[in-house]
Amino acid sequence: MQEIVGESLARRLVDWGVDTVFGLPGDGINGLMEGFRRQREKLTFVLVHHEEAAAFMATGYAKATGRLGVCAATSGPGAIHLLNGLYDAKLDHTPVLAITGMQETSVLGSHYQQEVHTPLLYHDVADYNLMVTNPQQVPGVVDIAVRNALAKRTVSHLSFPNDVQVAAAGADPYRHVSPGEPPMSSPVLSQPTVPAAQDDLARAAEVLNAGRKVAMLVGIGARGARDEVLAVAEKLASPVVKTLPGKMVVPDDHPLTTGGLGLLGTRPSEELMEECDTLLMVGTSFPYGKYLPSPGQARVVQIDVDASLVGLRLPVDAAVTADARLALRQLLPMLQAHSDRSFLEKYQRARDTWRAEMVSLQDPSRHPVAPQYLMSCVDAAASSDAILTCDSGTIATWAARHWTIRGDREFYLSGNLATMAPGLPYAIAMQRAYPGRQVIAFVGDGGFAMLMAEFLTAVRHELPIKVVINNNNSYGQILWEQIVLGYPEYAVRHRQPEADFAAWARACGGYGVKVTDPKALPGAVREALAHPGPALVDCDVNPDEPPMPGKVRYEQAQHFTEAFLRGQPHKVATLASVARDKINELRS
Ligand code: FAD
């Protein structure tokens, strides 16, 4: 059988170590599908129900493994559907290759059906972005696309016209002047683990040694540097503050960390940022400048592998362009041990108080179920190496504060795109990458409903993911944002009837249980986690539970009060919830 371009593409992906393509076929990629079919022994095609999910899966796969994620979609609508997931990859610095179809070259430009020029459409999202027009380009351009995605931790895109997909591999219909051999090299990328320059390290050490109240802010870029982060923090007597994606860098129960920063962060982290005189940022592009020290308050050292991302939020006194682990190792012997540990100890005490407050919110006696209690039940029952994925919404707050990173646990969400709906597809892809691990999607009813057909994907591919739905039948985060802005809530609560997602799980052939009674919750969660196949717990939670900031600001309190005075439709229920935890702060 003659090799076609579709197969040549698939073979080259296999050469690069790709074992999974997430996607959906269509008449724009039949030649590519035939190529994937011919390589099916080495390359699994995970058939999904929506291309957006395929792109999230490729992103989740790459986030969890550090390897290339690959997704495929047909021309026109399929390619358009991929976009949101691809932006998730781009904004979170994740290597993903998107493969799309295109109409035949002979009809391009004729307003043909589904003639969407995907390289133009993908101009902003893809760093390497090409329509393949000659079979001779393959596999050379595949190599370049893969290298770009991996080296720059971003999105590459290749689009294949229908006729090119099924053309004989290596054919060259247009040759008249030889351009030389098409580019092709070994399918290996030598990733530089960038060590730091001595001058940069010396400057960084000088700033850190001079500090009296040193704080560290670590992000997902420090993921492979847990030991080094802790060793440096110990020496500098520095509390370690974590970004939300960086939650898994240091265990939540480690004495040196005060937890997260930002709206979903902790009060001690926020307050120590206001007090520190020196800040060491490692592997982070934390976006919220208002939670960082005021300009001039602290001297700043920043370590990042990408020099173009240094100094985005704060003026930097010492910049170190290097891999976090290497740089911290190099820096450690240059640091003087700080004997005054009072700054650290002050915030360790504040952290203990904060944790006790968080535990008190996990109140099992509340009815409807408190979302904090739901998250705590999952936290208590999950294994020590469980992976938790999450969506954007109030669930991110509950996960940030009540999912404990300990042991080898991991945590993923759409950080910088902050899109709804990746939690379920991420979990599916991560389960595929790590068949033996417990993978839990902790999602809201809003995000789950967007791509809920993918639960069927999990059942059909025998991927035993667990889904826990924090079901408030509303867009809870937006509800609170409207209130904090000073507006009465509008169009954020769904009407009745409420969806029964457990019934959907069972209809798919999975395990599904609906929980409304807090007493039934721990057992239901344990049973679902113990189930050998895909399982779902749909838990009704209190829709009026506020995802309160660690430290309530005066303007937020003022807007909140004003919104109530203007007639908040659910004010009694809302006030009842708020009163339980932070009403005193709102009144102050
Ligand atoms: P990134 O922005 O991805 O930055 C990582 C950095 O590490 C990059 O600069 C990269 O170049 C660098 N890097 C990568 N590899 C290495 C290496 N080997 N060595 C050195 N450097 C490396 N986030 C919060 O922190 N607090 C919040 O309260 C918060 N609220 C959120 C609420 C919702 C609903 C959602 C969806 C998201 C929220 N986020 C929050 C996430 C937030 O939007 C950002 O995504 C996040 O703060 C950025 O985290 P990061 O800096 O760790 O990751």
UniProtKB/TrEMBL annotation:
Residues 5-116 form the Thiamine pyrophosphate enzyme N-terminal TPP-binding domain. Keywords: Pyruvate, Thiamine pyrophosphate. Residues 201-331 form the Thiamine pyrophosphate enzyme central domain. Residues 391-539 form the Thiamine pyrophosphate enzyme TPP-binding domain. The keyword Cell division does not apply. InterPro entries: DHS-like_NAD/FAD-binding_dom, POXB-like, THDP-binding, Thiamin_PyroP_enz_cen_dom, Thiamin_PyroP_enz_TPP-bd_dom, TPP-bd_CS, TPP_enzyme_TPP-bd, TPP_POXB-like. Signal peptide: none annotated. GO terms for molecular function: catalytic activity; magnesium ion binding; thiamine pyrophosphate binding. Belongs to the TPP enzyme family. This is Pyruvate oxidase. The lineage of its organism: Bacteria, Bacillati, Actinomycetota, Actinomycetes, Micromonosporales.
